[in-house]
Amino acid sequence: MTANEPSTRRAASGEGDAVVMRGVSKWYGDFRVLTDIDLNVRRGERVVICGPSGSGKSTLIRCINRLEEHQQGEIIVDGVELTRDLRSIDRVRREVGMVFQQFNLFPHLTVLENCVLAPMRVRGASRRAAEEQAQALLARVRIPEQAGKYPGQLSGGQQQRVAIARALCMNPRIMLFDEPTSALDPEMVKEVLDVMVELAGDGMTMLCVTHEMGFARRIADRVIFMDGGQIIEQAEPETFFTAPKHARTRAFLSQVLGDQ
Amino acid sequence: MTTTPSTPVKQPPAHGALARPPRQAPGLIQGLRSLVATPLNALLTVLALAIAWFLLRPAIEFLFIDAVWSGHDRAACLAGEAGGEIGACWPYIARRLGYFIYGQYPEAQRWRPNAAMALCALNIGWALWPRAPFRGAALFSFVLPFPVIAWILLYGPGFSGLVAVPTNLWGGVLVTMVISIVGIVVSLPLGVLLALGRRSQMPVVRAASTVFIEVMRGVPLLAVLFMANRMLPLFLPPGVLPDPLVRVMVGVSLFAAAGMAEVIRGGLQALPKGQYEAAAALGLGYWQMMFTVILPQALTLVIPGIVNTFISLFKDTTLVTVVGIFDLLTTIDVSSRDPAWATPVTASTGYAFAAIFYFICCYAMSRYSAAMERRLAAAGSRS
Asked: Using beta carbons and an 8 Å cutoff, which residues of A are at the interface with B?
C-alpha cells in the first residue's frame, strides 16, 4: 500500500474537503474489493481514477453515494458522514450527481421528464422552475431540441448527455462519472467528453472513472491509479503520465496508451 | 398448414436492384394456394376442415338453425310442430333475462343496479380511453368514490332513504360484476404491495408477504371461499358477522392478490438494476422511486400477466356458488329447473348463454390489453 498522498494534505483535511475517505474497506463475500482506501477530494478538484478492470475503481465511487455500502472506515461527503442512517444517505445523494456507464435514463419518460423528476420530487421545485432549468441544462449539453423525445429515440452519445443534464438538474456539489464513455460508439465519445470538459471548466467537483487518458490529461487535477482494491499511485497528470513511479502503473499506462 | 420450403411461391428476383424489400406476408391468394400446395398440405387442409365441420356444425345448428326464436312458455321449445331437432330456446333467455341480470333484486328497485352499472361503465370508459382528460382522477374515482356510491345505491343503507335490498336478493350478472370489480380493484394495489413486500429489505415484511403469497397460491380458491365463509367469523369478535357477499369478496380479492403479486414481482425483477440505481442516485426515496420509475415500467412489462389474472378472477367468480352466492351461472342453473320452462334444451340454452357472456367479457379484456400494449410500444416509450 503506497498511498502517495502527502501527509500535509491529510492533516489539512476537514471542512473544506468535498469527499473524505479514511481506511475504507469493502468485501463481496470473502473477496476484498477495497482495502484501506484513504482519499481526500477538495472542493472544485477534478479527480480521474483509472486502473485495470476489477481494480475496485467503480466500487470506490459508488461508495461515495452509497450505491455500495462500505464495511470499514469512514466516508464523509460534503460534511456528512455516510452511516446506516437513511437521512445521511438521502442528504448525500441530494448533493451528489452520478452518471453511469449504461446511461440508465428512465425509458418511459421523455428527456424533459427525466430531467425534472428529481428536482420536483426531491427538491420540491415547481414544474415551471424545474422545466426552465432542465431546458437550460439541455441547451448546455447541446441537445435542447430533444426535450420531448423518449430516450429510446436518441443515440448513445445523446442519451449520455441527457444523463449528465439530468444529474446537473439537482444542482449537485459533486459529480461522479462511472466510465461514462465506455458503452459508447467511438464517434460519440467526443461529444460526451466535450460536455464533461466544459463542466470541469466551471469548477465542479468531479470524480471520474475512465479509460480516456487524453481527457484525464486535459482536465484532471489529480490522477489516481488503482489496482487490486488499493490506491497504488496518485499524482498530477503531468507527473503521472511522464514519470509514473510504480511498476504496475507503468504496465497499465503502456497498455492503455499503447493502442491510442 | 404452414408453407413448406418446397412451396412454389413466386419468388421476387434476387438481384440488388430491388427498390423495396420483398413482400414477407403472403397475400390472400398466396395464402390459399399454400393450403393445397403439396399433397401433405392438401391433406392437412381437408383434415382441418373436416374437424371444423364436425365441431362447428352442431354448435351452429343448435345456436341458430334449429333454435327457437319466439314463444311465451315451454310449449314453444318442445319438439312438436315440426317434429325435428330443437335447438336453443331463446325465448327462455329473453323471458328470464331480468332474473339473470339482477337475481331477486326487487323489480321496482332495478333502476338502482342500472344506475350503478351505468356509472361503472362511464367510469371504466373514462379511465380506459387513452385520450380522455384527467385519467388519473378517473382511476381515483373508481377506487374510492365509485365503490361507496355503488354500495349506497345497491344496498340502500338506512341513511340513504332508499329501500334496503339485502345482498341475499342480489344475483346474476350484478353479483358477478360486483365480485369481479371489487376483486380487480383490490387485487391490483394489494398485489403491488405484496410484490414489493416480498422484495423488501425488512425481514418481517418480507416473511409476512412471502407466507401470505405462498399460502394463498398453494390453496384452491374453493378452499379459500369456504374458509372466508366459515372461518372468517371465528377470527372476528362475536356478533360481528360480515355479509356473506362481503366474505366472498374478501376471499376472491385476497386469492387474486396473491397471484397478482407474483406476476408483478416478475416485472420488478425484469427491470435492469440500473433503473433502481439511477433513481437512488438522484435522491428519490423508496416510494418516490417505486411510483415514478419502477412500477410504471414493471407494470407495463407484465400487462399480459395482469390481464390474465383479471380474466381468471372473472371466471373464478362462478365458484362462489358453493357458498350460496347467486352469481350469473347459479341463477341460470336455478332457473333452468323452473317447471314453467322445463324442456330438454333449457339447461343447454342457459349454459350456452353463460358461455357467450363470459367469452365476450374475457375477450374484451384481452383485446383491450393487446391494444394497450400496441399503443405503449408505438409511443416508443420502451427503448
From this structure: 65, 67, 90, 93-94, 96-98, 100, 102, 104-108, 117-118, 121-122, 150-153, 163, 166-167, 170
Give the closest-approach CA distance of B209 to chain A in angstroms.
23
- Please judge whether B275 and A104 are an interchain contact, meaning their C-beta atoms are less than 8 angstroms apart: yes
Cross-chain Cβ contact B282/A122 below 8 Å: yes
ipTM value: 0.90
DSSP state of A69: -
Strand segments (E) across chain A: 17-28, 31-42, 46-50, 72-77, 80-81, 96-99, 174-178, 205-209, 222-227, 230-235
Decide if A107 and B382 are in contact by the 8 Å CB cutoff. Answer: yes
Are A152 and B380 inside 8 Å of each other by CB? Answer: yes
Q: Which of B269, B307, B360 is nearest to B187 (CA)?
A: B307
Please tell me which of the candidates A90, A108, A152 has its beta carbon nearest to residue B283.
A90
pLDDT: which is higher, B123 or B232: B123
How confident is the model over A189-242, as pLDDT tens digits? 999 999 999 999 998 999 999 999 999 999 999 999 999 999 999 999 999 999
For B90-105+165-378, CATH number? 1.10.3720.10
CB burial string B15-35: b at 16+ within 10 A, e below: eeeeeeeeeeeeeeeeeebbe
